[in-house]
Amino acid sequence: MTTKKRSENGIDRRPISITAVVDCVGALATGTLQGNLYFYDTNKAGGSTGFGTEQLRTRVKAGDQLLWGVLALECEAYLAIDGIEIDHALVEPERKVYPGTDVAYWIGTVKKDAVGEIAYQLKFKVGSRDEAITTGTLSPSLVG
Q1: In this structure, what CATH number is given to the domain that contains residue 17?
Q2: 137 φ/ψ sector (left φ>0, alpha ψ -120 to 50, else beta)
Q3: Per-residue pLDDT tens over the stretch 9-42
């Protein structure tokens, strides 16, 4: 999903990919994502900050398409985003699956310019644990 989108000033923009890197062994051992989660996005040139931390601040504008994905530090560990809790007046994330696979990702379009900083939480299914682990007080956010 790397289709370009033309902005209001005629400049081509790619979707903003937000990737969560999870230390699954650490998260399962501690029961928390704190200290076991690292976020990155593809909008550093656009003003995003906090790369490699739990508090990524993704700079967004109305019309931006966001793609959330996840990577496990341990290749043999099961890991998936189970949900995204965010103000649906700003973005309404939807789970999708790449055609012909069982690989899931989440997508959403920014409906309006963010006013200030809008924190959100991600829920992750990790390993064989029954309940999802949710990002805690240190969470990523969208910034206008």
Answers
A1: 2.60.40.3910
A2: alpha
A3: 444 567 999 999 999 999 999 999 999 999 999 9
